[in-house]
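debug: dumping io for the single-chain case to check the tokenizer round-trip. Nothing else runs in this session.
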Amino acid sequence: MLIAYDGTDDGALDRRLAVREQHIALGDKLIAEGHMHFGTAILDSDDKMIGSMLVLEYSTRAELDAWLAIEPYAVSDVWQTIEVKPVRVGPSFVGLHK
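debug: decoded output
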């Protein structure tokens, strides 16, 4: 599971919106390849996007890092803090995107 928070500066939302379509397109590709199970924007109390939470499936951390090296939010200075936690997708959810 990846939890990433955007910057808090005045240009943070503009940076996110500038590459959002590329981020979504890559996410669609990851779903098709079986690497992404779920993704959502994290919102603040005003419903403003301030981060992301993704449930991903990669065999190794190196594969995940290779994805991060091309992920638009990661390379365009949108995500300022990225935390990766190992999780196991429950059996009720496995195969929903395959």
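debug: round-trip ok. Helices lie at 12-33, 61-68, 72-75.
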